[in-house]
Amino acid sequence: MEAKAKCPSLVELMMPEHENPSGNIFGGVLLAKIDIAGAVAARQAHPGRVVTVAMDSVIFKKPVLRGDLLICWADIVKIGKTSITTKIRVEVNRGGEIIPVTEAEATYVAVDAKGVKIPVGTRDDGTVVKPKLSDYCIACEGEAAGKSEDKPKSKKCKCSKKQKKNKKGNKKHKCGCSEKAKNNK
Ligand SMILES: CC(C)(COP(=O)(O)OP(=O)(O)OC[C@H]1O[C@@H](n2cnc3c(N)ncnc32)[C@H](O)[C@@H]1OP(=O)(O)O)[C@@H](O)C(=O)NCCC(=O)NCCS
Description:
Blueprint: E1 10-13, H1 27-42, E2 50-60, E3 69-79, E4 83-94, E5 97-110, E6 156-157, E7 163-165, E8 171-173, E9 180-181
Parallel strand pairs: 6-9
Antiparallel strand pairs: 1-3, 2-5, 3-4, 4-5, 7-8
This protein binds coenzyme A.
Coenzyme A (COA) binds next to strand 2 and strand 5.
């Protein structure tokens, strides 16, 4: 299973406080960002609390620098009984150039309020939700660009006032709005 994220799970400007003594962004900071990005993706499969059980195969390919815009893309790659495995790809926007810098896999376990593992997708009330995978964004709630939800809806006046003809003989909605009248024929 590999869905492709529609939107980044995390975007953050790297600040001086993120730097290590040699001037690169500290690896621990990047791990924290990766962890958050994966947890955000895990939300697509589980509506409640998750804890990180493992972070695997972290590869720091290129350094991240102060002023870089860090962009984390996270996808769910596997859903188990209680666990969700995610793949996180990190890139930076440095002066307009996009540079891939890091990759990692992180696994999360769905837990209840006491921290005890529960089946993925289980809500507090015991109901189960289906995972939302491909082309889904937790922030825009699945309204992918270009989908019908984003297209301008045809305007129709909802008022039920009668229409009258103007001087030119065109029908005009009585309420004065310029929207297409509901009862236009
Ligand atoms: C995560 C935790 C709840 C798991 O509890 P547990 O009873 O030991 O659970 P299990 O060993 O049965 O593993 C649970 C799931 O995680 C998976 N898992 C466990 N260890 C794993 C590892 N090293 N890598 C990948 N997946 C792992 C298991 O395969 C299982 O998945 P499945 O149910 O989908 O088949 C428990 O270990 C815990 O609380 N750990 C601390 C979490 C934490 O503090 N994280 C840091 C801050 S968020």
